[in-house]
Amino acid sequence: xxxxLKRLMRSRPVQSLLGRLLAGYLRLxxxxxxxxxxGDGSADAAYARxxxxxxxxxxxxxxxxxxxxxxxxxxxxxxxxxRHGDGEFNAIALARLGIRAIRGSGARGTKxxxxxxxxxxxxxxxxxxxxxxxxxxxxxxxxxxxxxxxxVMLSRLSGRPVVPVAVVTSRRLxxxxxxxxxxxxPFGRGAIVVGxxxxxxxxxxxxxxxxxxxxxxxxxxxxxxRAYGRIGAADxxxxxxxxDAKSHAA
Length: 250
What we know:
InterPro entries: DUF374. It is a single chain. With 250 residues, this protein is of the alpha/beta class. The chain has a single domain, classed as Glycerol-3-phosphate (1)-acyltransferase, CATH 3.40.1130. Helices cover 43% and strands 17% of the residues. The protein is built from nine helices and nine strands. The strands form two sheets. A seven-stranded mixed β-sheet has the order 1-9-6-2-5-3-4, with helices on both faces. Helix 6 packs parallel to helix 7 (150-158). It starts with a helix and ends with a helix.
């Protein structure tokens, strides 16, 4: 993309317009799909199973378009949104859908400060302490469906459990991107699956932290498999046997 066009696309007015359009489109998708909640089909029953709020809602990258559908209107929530330019219109869309944005993202090595990871972690802990649930991706950028350490440490430091969630629709666009992003289309069927809470002990040693990381990863894959099963489809982003082995060896 040429630099002038790139600057235009990242200008505040254009980002605001894109955010409003995205929020409006997602509302259309939500209203024109028939969603079924896993279990007895009730959102309240699904939330009752996870226990007291707030919780840390975990999703895979690529689910960021669909995850707002799993939020009940009465539950205050905030989501971690990248500081990257494209994160601005996502933050605007989320705000119009009733979810506050916390800017920052996961990173490795020397990029943690640049990505705002430390400040975001403090913001997430403060948000949970204030009674808002938080929503964030479990996998770090460019490494799809391999759970990173960030969400595990957030649970450990905040004392709040991680709850894996998946939202899928029968009619959708699946992108051939690194994060296997998916966005629903109108006039289909949908499924929302809320997994069991995973608590990380405050005194967890490295072995326990790794076990929790693997469990979050496995449960996220499991809720996606269940969600796609409810609409009669296979998970297009399911990890291969090779990537599974790599994750378990990490």
